[in-house]
Design goal:
heterodimer, A: 258 residues, Serine Threonine Protein Phosphatase 5, Tetratricopeptide repeat, SH3 type barrels, 3 domains, five-stranded antiparallel beta sheet, two-stranded antiparallel sheet, B: 594 residues, alpha+beta, Immunoglobulin-like, 4 domains, seven-stranded mixed beta sheet, 8 helices, flat
């Protein structure tokens, strides 16, 4: 028995080592330094320089809520509404509850030109998305982990104190239900991130066409900062869906994925 | 007389025979019916081909004619009663759209169906330039349902107003009417709307309507638009593209096969003249900001109670009603030295309302009220400007304490020289100084190996704890299990003891020890009282369990040896003891694995 136990312990330690090795890759580039410099450039109203430095951090493969938030601010100062909304939306994935972000996003949204038809439909859909946006994937993972650890702790208590079995079992059942609910929510959010390609329109105004051809008629118009879903791409064209369900084709260079 | 009847009979037979041959050999004629034979280039005509004495006959494919586009529309079965005899016919309808000006010959056609040749005569049509005074197939100016009721399919466009003001919203409906046709792939209409700003068409609605006795299916597209300039503007035509689906008779293999075919069609509506009047300059209020419609306006503030200097007051301005909401901007509030006023922003927008919010921060307790706010608009129905004034709203501003005075609200007004902030009246919150922890792009906790492995440790510990407790429990409650588990361990110790006796060459004691070792082992292994185990009992237990016969023989031999050695130890030398020791080991090893 002891032998089995120690073998398993060794196996886990080895996994830790492997995991640690692959994950503990040394960062040669220091994003913190660039972030501080970009923020001071922003303070000096050198917004374009700040944008360049913030974008450089992203191009090195790093991201953080503050980085996207600051970049959104810098773009807004430059009058590039599409870039501002895009980066605020990216920041929202990390800090959906942040009041500063909410304020700026509302402000940016108020600057956005909106087609009168846009807000008329699919309000329920929008509400569901707003509800799901409140939960970050990391937040849900930590919640799930906490519930899981509590369940393990309670099950261990049942093993050690058999007399408390009935009492503890009730809590385990409740926690089990909570675990399933959080897991469902997390799965939905992971699915949304992985498979629903939400994007933001970048140019001030573009036309979504019936077909992926320049010569075809325009179906509807899209403005900078409008949230869209990319359904599929074909050469340099993408089929997109606006929040109200309208579908059309635009050139792929006109949007960026959140 | 008899001869006369015979001749008459023969004449009748011959007559009937030849008339039958003549009838069978006769080709049937296709009737060609045109709407008109003189058409303008921009129009189209309908051609009906009527095949007598047929029912459900598939439509033949007509040969292409240079300069004409012939598109199949639909087929119908017709029945008529003439001289008490019911006659059937199949009518196939085609739409002929000219591509160029000139004279064209249509037909003759020859269609072979069910062993009969259907033949038509030739027909000539003339296509004019459209300005030659040729009567068009469809009167483009007639735009009402009843006038078009004879048509199988048509497109109508209607607006709720013919005279509007600049920026005044009006509605447009485009209706596709059709009957007895299977339409597929109907696309949204395209509408020429130069000088107008137009919304996208809403999702189409389908309905049915009987017009002059004809049952029509109607697909309606609705939208709203407003003009961007004044003058007599043209709206339309609306164009709609779709496919019609029908069973066709093809003759690719000469066998007259039937196939379901799609035909692309495009319909065009008439053009509407819209008179757009400019918004009058007379009596135009100063606060007028291009709002046109009929609105209500209201304002409120939050919080309503006393506010300290530096605290924010949110002014909510709600405009509700019908009109051009897209162009509505927030009503203007005058700047004042007593407060900082932020840019208004759109808080909420509905179909018939718009809510703006504007933040005001008092700079001194001298502020007594929020100034009045004027909202003016032009009412196109009443044809005059209207102004709604709300406020002033009284507020109570308290002087902040010294500590609060030093508190700076980010984004303060540029007039406030004490608090130089990077964001001056821009309406956004300043950047974050702390970067937070940077992650690799796309990395989440759920796909972090370290995190996942750490999650497995509690589970592993729990399973270990569970196993240890289960084992302990079984040891306490299941004697048979406990004895089996300790059998090997005890045998090992006993063999060790026997080995030392073997080394000391104490024959009698060795055989007693090794006998007891096996006795104990079998007792534990088969849950029997160890002290009473003899050769007979061992055989009695082992034989029914189908163990290897050799090992049973070895066990018997071993027990015999032990019995003999106990009574005549002098006969046993060291090599016999070693053999017995090895036998015991072999037996124990066998049963350990068994």
């Amino acid at each position: 028995m002891l032998r089995t136990f120690f073998t398993a312990a060794l196996f886990i330690a080895a996994l830790f080592y492997i995991g640690g090795d692959s994950f503990g890759e040394e960062f040669r580039y220091d994003p913190y330094e660039d972030f501080a410099e970009a923020s001071s450039l922003y303070g000096e109203s050198r917004f374009q320089d700040a944008v360049n430095l913030y974008e450089d951090i992203i191009n090195h493969g790093y991201e953080s809520a503050s980085l996207y938030y600051n970049l959104g601010n810098a773009y807004l100062k430059l009058g590039f509404l599409g870039g501002a909304v895009l980066n605020y939306e990216r920041a929202k994935r990390f800090i959906p509850y942040d009041s500063d972000l909410k304020t700026n996003l509302v402000y940016a949204d108020s600057l956005r030109q909106q087609s009168p038809m846009e807000g008329n439909r699919l309000r329920l859909n929008r509400k569901i998305n707003a509800f799901l946006d409140v939960f970050t994937i990391n937040g849900l993972t930590l919640t799930l982990s906490s519930i899981y650890l509590t369940i393990i702790l309670l099950l261990s208590l049942i093993v050690l104190k058999k007399t408390m079995r009935r009492f503890i079992s009730k809590f385990v059942i409740i926690l089990g239900i909570m675990f399933m609910l959080v897991l469902t929510l997390m799965t939905i959010n992971i699915y949304r991130v992985k498979h629903i390609h939400s994007a933001i329109v970048l140019p001030d105004e573009i036309s979504a066409r019936f077909e992926p051809l320049e010569s075809t008629a325009a179906n509807f118009r899209l403005y900078a900062g409008t949230k869209i879903i990319v359904l599929r791409t074909r050469d340099r064209w993408s089929q997109i869906k606006r929040e109200d369900g309208k579908i059309g084709w635009i050139e792929s260079s006109n949007y960026d994925i959140i | 007389m008899n001869m006369f009847y015979k001749i008459c009979f023969a004449v009748c037979c011959v007559t009937l025979f030849f008339s039958a041959i003549a009838t069978s050999a006769q080709d049937k004629e296709i009737e060609l019916v045109f709407d008109s034979k003189n058409i303008p280039i921009s129009s189209s005509i309908r051609l009906d081909m009527i095949f007598p004495d047929t029912q459900g006959m598939p439509a033949p494919e007509l040969a292409e004619i240079d300069g004409l586009k012939i598109t199949y529309l639909r087929s119908t079965n017709a029945a008529s009663r003439a001289s008490g005899i019911l006659k059937h016919a199949t009518k196939h309808t085609y739409v002929i759209t000219p591509q160029q000006v000139g004279a064209f010959s249509i037909g003759p056609f020859n269609v072979h169906y069910n062993g009969i040749d259907y033949i038509s005569s030739k027909a000539d049509i003339r296509v004019g330039s459209g300005t030659l005074g040729i009567r068009p197939y469809k009167d483009e100016n007639v735009n009402d349902e009843e006038a078009r009721a004879r048509d199988d399919i048509f497109l109508l466009m209607a607006t709720d107003k013919r005279t509007v003001y600049t920026n005044q919203v009006f509605h447009i409906v485009v209706g596709l009417y059709y009957r007895d046709i299977n339409l597929t792939d109907i696309q949204y209409p395209l509408l020429m709307h130069e000088g107008f700003s137009m919304d996208e068409f809403q999702a189409p609605q389908k309905s049915r309507k009987t017009i002059k006795g004809y049952n029509y299916s109607i697909i309606t597209f609705r939208s709203s638009l407003f003009s961007l300039m004044s003058g007599d503007l043209k709206l339309g035509p609306a164009t709609i593209a779709f496919n019609s689906q029908a069973l066709s008779l093809t003759n690719a293999t000469g066998l007259g096969e039937k196939a379901l075919r799609k035909h692309s069609l495009k319909l065009k509506s008439t053009i509407k003249e819209i008179t757009v009047l400019p918004i009058p300059d007379d009596a135009r209020p100063e606060s007028f900001n291009d709002a046109i419609g009929n609105f209500d306006f209201d304002i409120s503030i939050e919080p309503k109670g006393p506010v300290k200097v530096g605290d924010a007051i949110v002014i909510t301005m709600e405009i509700a009603g019908s009109g051009n909401l897209a162009l509505l901007s927030a009503p203007h509030i005058d700047q004042n030295e007593d407060y900082i006023l932020y840019e208004p922003y759109l808080k909420d927008e509905g179909k018939e309302r718009k809510v703006f919010e504007q933040t005001l921060v008092p700079k001194s307790s001298a502020l007594q009220s929020i100034p009045f706010v004027k909202f003016s608009f032009f009412d196109p129905e009443a044809e005059r400007f209207k102004v709604i004034t709300k406020g002033p709203i009284e507020v109570q501003i308290l002087q902040a304490g010294e500590e609060e005075k030093s508190r700076v609200m980010e984004g303060a007004d540029s007039m406030n020289s004490e608090h130089e902030q990077p964001l001056l009246n821009k309406g956004i919150v300043y950047i974050k100084d702390l970067s937070g922890s940077f992650n690799r792009k796309g990395s989440y906790l759920y796909n972090n190996k370290k995190f996942l492995i750490s999650q497995s440790i509690p589970l592993f510990l729990y399973v270990s704890l569970l196993l240890i407790y289960k084992r302990r429990e079984r040891f306490q409650n299941d004697i048979r299990y406990a004895r089996i588990k300790i059998a090997g361990k005890q045998a090992k110790n006993a063999l060790k003891k026997a080995r030392s006796l073997l080394n000391e060459s104490s024959v009698e004691e060795f055989y007693v020890a090794i006998f007891e070792c096996l006795q104990e082992y079998f007792g534990n292994k088969f849950n029997l009282p160890s002290a009473g185990i003899t050769l007979d009992i061992v055989e009695h237990v082992l034989r029914p369990k189908n163990f290897d016969q050799n090992i049973i023989t070895k066990v018997s031999a071993f027990f015999n040896d032990c019995d003999i050695a106990k009574f005549t130890p002098y006969r046993y030398k060291e090599k016999d003891m070693l053999r017995s020791f090895n036998q015991a080991k072999e037996i124990i090893n066998y049963f350990k694995k068994a």
